[in-house]
Design goal:
A 5-stranded antiparallel β-sheet has the order 4-5-6-7-26, with no helix packed on it. By secondary structure, the protein is mostly beta strands.
Length: 345
């Protein structure tokens, strides 16, 4: 697991990596960063050599402001190398994947490059196996656009799950961006209703289409409900679902396809459980049916005339500290609940 912590160094926080065994028992924990600066980990994947790759952000190294941060470790969490990517303003990496050639692909957002400097644009960086940039691309318009996740597709390209303020208002849409192996735009689509719709995770499904998940306050939601849209291979909606209760927030942060061609949806809820935000897992059929507290919204799909650009600098690898960290043991899981008010088993 990757994230950040202010428990062991300073209040600005360090990137944080924890390794457990198959039963969730902690084996080791490491922190990475520079004292009195902000360092964050947002995504981690195990690499083919048994180590780990962490993507996030830092303002302790790089070109200025926040920069994308990429840290490669060995199997014990010791830093092998690290890199930064960015310019004078803020850049953040929210997702990283290792590629078949051993290199990496990062997705996030930039305020330095792209269609609207000073606003966020979706930012993708392709690197070699040692973290050197091969190409950098931006996608967006002259308003805020955020990239949250990237996955390699069966044709060798990539799908990006994003959120766009496409017209410069406070109403956002989910967005899927399909690019080829070199970062050239294939198509981009927006999904949503009359309110605000955030896209934070996306995958390619077994049938060659895509799913994008997040949250929405369109379609009569009380606060925000979890929101899932299924598309065909060209981004045209096949179906959409909304899940939630009377709390102020429900959100999907992760989607995985299961062997029965259904889906597991992970996120959080404020409608069910003990109060506040609670971890939330749903099992859905291939049509998105979970069995209770769900509706079928009338999603609007629109072609997104996104602008593309290039840009960015690769920073020299900062010398990251990798101190071991003591870890407070959490309390056991208190409660596992099904939705109230539905035909749940």
């Amino acid at each position: 697991m990757a994230g950040h912590t202010a428990a062991f160094t300073d209040f600005n926080g360090d990137a944080y990596l924890l390794k457990t065994d198959a039963n969730g028992i902690l084996q080791w924990a490491k922190v990475y960063g520079l004292a009195n600066f902000r360092d964050r980990g947002y995504s981690v994947r195990q690499t083919v050599d048994g180590g780990y790759i962490i993507a996030g952000e830092t303002n302790g190294y790089g070109a200025g402001g926040l920069d994308m941060l990429l840290i490669k470790t060995d199997a014990a969490g010791t830093v092998t190398w690290s890199k930064t990517f960015g310019g004078a303003n803020d850049e953040t990496a929210r997702s990283v994947r290792q590629l078949p050639d051993g290199g990496y692909i990062l997705a996030g957002y930039t305020k330095t490059y792209g269609a609207g400097p000073g606003f966020n644009d979706v930012y993708v960086v392709r690197t070699s196996s040692t973290g050197n940039a091969i190409w950098r691309k931006t996608y967006g318009l002259s308003a805020d656009d955020w990239g949250y996740t990237i996955e390699r597709t069966t044709d060798g390209g990539y799908i990006i799950g994003a959120t766009t303020d496409f017209n410069g208002t406070t109403f956002y849409d989910m967005a899927l961006i399909k690019i080829d192996s070199g970062g050239t735009l294939t198509w981009a689509k927006r999904y949503g209703g009359s309110g605000t719709d955030f896209g934070t995770t996306a995958i390619q499904s077994a049938d060659g289409g895509y799913l994008i998940g997040g949250m929405s306050n369109s379609f009569g939601a009380v606060g925000y409900d979890a929101y899932l849209v299924k598309t065909n291979a060209t981004g045209v909606e096949t179906w959409s679902k909304k899940y939630g209760g009377n709390g102020s927030f429900e959100q999907i942060w992760e989607i995985k396809q299961t062997t029965d061609l259904g889906y597991v949806l992970g996120g959080y809820t404020m409608s069910y459980g003990q109060g506040g935000r609670e971890t939330w897992v749903m099992k859905a059929t291939s049509a998105g049916v979970v069995g209770c507290n769900e509706t079928t919204p009338t999603t609007v799909t629109t072609t997104w005339n996104v602008l593309t650009g290039t840009g960015g600098n690769t920073g020299s690898g900062p010398v990251m500290t990798n101190a071991s960290a003591a870890v407070r043991r959490p309390n056991p899981i208190r409660n596992i609940q099904c939705f109230s008010g539905g035909p749940c088993p």
